[in-house]
């Protein structure tokens, strides 16, 4: 079990700014390595956060299976392309998971991919989170690997 300490205002503010920077971004959610919702942008209600948690658990399982089969390094990002939207799922070095939805006719997927990568690179500033045991967290590890491995 992961015990997390998150400054909700800081995380919510960071997620709101991420969504505000990219045209078409609708929401962002951060999950713990165990898949528990830690925070969300302003449009994220508890029901949506729980649904995203379940979806991400399935996507991570598939992504981790792909990394084992392809033997090409750790899982960093999953992108789901739908007819009217994209869902970005990115692992953060401390084990947390960022999920962002972008939709619309004039969206720039490259801008969202850049912003997701930027957020992941600066996640330590937004996620004052303490994971236990600390030695288990490593770069590129989603936390799901520890559970599934």
Structure description:
- The protein has 149 residues and is of the alpha+beta class.
- It is 41% helix and 20% strand.
- The chain has a 5-stranded antiparallel β-sheet, sandwiched between helices.
- It starts with 7 loop residues before the first helix and ends with a helix.
Distance between the termini: 16 Å
Amount of beta strand? 15-25%
Low-pLDDT parts are: 1-6, 131-149
The shape, in one word, is globular
User: What order do the SSEs take from the amino end to the carboxyl end, as H and E?
Assistant: HEEHEEEHHH
For the secondary structure, the number of strands is: 5
- Write down the Rg: 14 Å
Secondary-structure class: alpha+beta
Within the largest sheet, what's the order of strands? Answer: 2-1-5-4-3
Quick summary:
The protein has helices spanning 8-21, 46-70, 109-121, 123-126, 144-148; strands at residues 25-31, 37-40, 77-81, 85-91, 97-103. With 149 residues, it is an alpha+beta fold.
Write the layout of secondary structure elements.
Layout: H1 8-21, E1 25-31, E2 37-40, H2 46-70, E3 77-81, E4 85-91, E5 97-103, H3 109-121, H4 123-126, H5 144-148
Antiparallel strand pairs: 1-2, 1-5, 3-4, 4-5
